[in-house]
Write a structure and sequence with these properties.
619 residues; mainly beta; 2 helices; 29 strands; 2% helix; disordered N terminus
């Protein structure tokens, strides 16, 4: 006897009688020997019928009422094993005592319209509560003392001390715009997010000393006064509207991560930023100088989003990651290992980059000879318009991503390169010898439409991606794969023969005919074949053309996804696990992996026999 837990999606708009769910998954005679238990249930469009008491088995732990469901849930309907419940955007009925089982730990009420919660309706087991549209005063004790996470999307009522349980650690309020009173927030709170509405001065002693993460998003634009933020704070994110001068002592020394929104453009005085700060994010409007003493020696990551930052800046020697349009020398940063340079500016010369650099992400800036340090192991270069010269990439480089469309010649790429990715714009011929013999992974990008004759791809190559448009039918047959390649992702028709070394094949566009299937030698032994097919009619032909694969992962243009194991390629006998099937108006599917070789396997007429693990349509 096999056992398994099942996920069902119910999409038929009809009353569910007791026993309906259980009988729907055992009606297939091949699977009567399998004991299923339903653990996850989702009610989808167009279901909007009353659920009767006793119709949901006590094996269910997760229920989602999604789509258009708007019927009231009566006491006794939900199973006593339920731990997660989601009520969708159309559910607008009051939650009264007896509806929610004592086992429930997570409740999500997603309606943007106010849904009333009766005192005593929420079980003491509840740990996570989301009330998207709720906007009434909470009564003392209305929220259970078990809560650790509370999300209030529309709540905008005065928050009185003692209303929120002392157990809450995470609090999210989307529309709250009331002055915070001392004692109104739980003493256990560690994460507070105030989103769209909040714009009030924060008085000293208002925020609990337990708070470690504070996000003041949306409209907040108030002066931060000394001692107004707790000394426990580690992460502070200030809103899109915030543009206030930072006063000495306003930011506690405990802060390690500080993010400013796109409006902030105030000068920062030396000693204002916390001495413990490691991450600083300054958005697109910030264009103030950062002289000596402004950035603390603890800083490891700095982001300057301004498209043309040209102010005075002194980078601390502790800096490891820099994202900026600033193009002055970074030699003063002996620890700098990752550098992002964006925006329009002058060329990168040999004096710009430090010898400690390991990763470089460069956009639009031209490179002068010798400008890339020998320490680099990873580089990404985008949108530069200059000829690529020999030695363009250093020999020490291991990985490169080139988002450009410039001709390649011998010596341009480093001799130790192992991974090369071309961006969507690349469509240049590859001369024989231009790819290094060390290369193992190659992605040619989606616009590449050139021939790849013998000797073009190095013998070291093991992984190849050819997602190009391949519009030129005279060239698509001229692709010669190296003999050691084991992973190929390609469009249909551009590969004529498959090497015996291949273990993984992925055809990324729809196979419309057998002629587009590449020829596989009889001694090939593939582990995985991924195909996209127009319909089931071509499936058997595709599997016969590419035999000896352990698993076929098949997608159909109508949306279904199958995982198939071929048992007899001559007779066309296979076992298929239906991962997702919306064809033939199926009303449910099972997420379950099980192969049953004891089921009858005789076929007639060479038609593929699929023994599928899936529920019959729910009646």
């Amino acid at each position: 006897m096999c056992k398994g837990s099942v996920s069902i999606r119910w999409k038929k708009n009809c009353t569910i009688a007791p026993g309906t769910l259980e009988s729907s998954i055992i009606s297939n005679p091949h699977w009567r020997s399998t004991a299923y238990t339903i653990s996850n249930l989702s009610f989808c469009v167009p279901f909007d019928s009353v659920v009767l008491p006793g119709s949901l088995p006590n094996t269910i732990t997760h229920i989602r009422f999604t789509g258009i469901y708007s019927q009231p849930i009566k006491p006794g309907v939900l199973p006593t094993t339920l731990i997660y419940l989601q009520l969708g955007t159309r559910y607008m009925h009051e939650l009264v005592t007896g509806i929610l089982p004592a086992s429930l730990t997570t409740l999500e009420v997603l309606s943007e319209v106010h849904v009333n919660v009766q005192p005593g309706a929420l079980p003491q087991s509840l740990r996570s509560l989301t009330l998207t549209g709720f906007n009434n005063d909470f009564e003392p004790g209305q929220l259970p003392n078990s809560l650790t996470m509370l999300s209030l999307g529309s709540y905008d009522q005065p928050l009185q001390p003692g209303v929120l349980p002392s157990t809450i650690k995470t609090l999210y309020m989307g529309q709250f715009n009331r002055k915070l009173l001392p004692g109104s927030l739980p003493s256990s709170l560690t994460k507070l997010t105030l989103v769209d509405g909040f714009d009030h001065r924060i008085e000293p002693g208002t925020l609990p000393q337990s708070l470690t993460h504070l996000s003041l998003d949306g409209n907040f634009n108030q002066q931060l006064w000394p001692n107004s933020l707790p000394s426990s704070l580690q992460s502070l994110s200030l809103s899109n509207q915030f543009d206030q001068l930072l006063l000495p002592g306003s930011l506690p020394d405990s802060i390690t991560s500080l993010m400013f929104g796109p409006s902030f453009n105030q000068p920062i005085q030396p000693g204002v930023l916390p001495a413990s700060l490691t991450v600083l994010f300054l958005d697109e409007s910030f264009n103030q100088p950062l002289p000596y003493g402004v950035l603390p020696d603890s800083l490891t990551t700095l982001t300057l989003q301004a498209p043309s930052y040209n102010e005075e800046i002194h980078l601390p020697p502790s800096l490891k990651t820099l994202y900026s349009s600033w193009s002055a020398s970074t030699h003063a940063c002996p620890s700098l290992s990752t550098l992002y340079i964006h925006g329009v500016g002058g060329p990168i010369d040999p004096t710009t980059l430090p010898q400690s650099l390991l990763s470089l992400y460069l956009e639009t800036r031209p490179l002068l000879p010798g400008s890339l340090p020998a320490s680099l192991t990873h580089v990404q270069i985008m949108n530069i318009e200059q000829p690529l010269f020999p030695g363009f990439l250093p020999d020490t480089l291991k990985e490169a991503a080139l988002y450009l469309d410039q001709p390649l010649t011998t010596g341009v790429l480093g001799s130790q390169l192992t991974m090369l990715t071309f961006g969507g714009g690349f469509n240049q011929p590859l001369p024989i010898g231009c790819l290094p013999s060390s290369l193992t992974i190659l992605d040619m990008g989606y616009k590449f439409d050139q021939s790849l004759p013998a000797g073009c791809l190095p013998d070291s190559l093991t992984n190849l991606v050819l997602d190009g448009v391949w519009t030129n039918t005279n060239l698509v047959r001229d692709v010669v794969l190296p003999c050691h390649i084991n992973s190929l992702r390609s469009r249909a028709g551009c590969i004529k023969y498959l090497p015996t070394s291949l273990k993984s094949l992925n055809i990324v566009d729809s196979l419309l005919s057998v002629s587009a299937i590449p020829n596989a030698p009889p001694n090939i032994s593939l582990q995985t074949v991924k195909l996209l097919l127009k319909d089931e009619a071509i499936l058997l032909a595709a599997m016969k053309a590419i035999p000896n694969a352990e698993t076929y992962q098949v997608g159909f243009t109508h949306g279904a996804r199958w995982h198939i194991r071929l048992i007899d390629p001559v007779k066309g006998i296979a076992i298929a696990v239906i991962v997702n099937d919306y064809n033939d108006n199926k009303d449910c599917f099972l997420n379950y992996n099980l192969f049953d070789t004891s089921a009858p396997s005789n076929v007639s007429g060479g038609v593929l026999r699929c023994l599928s693990i899936k529920a019959h349509p729910l009646q």
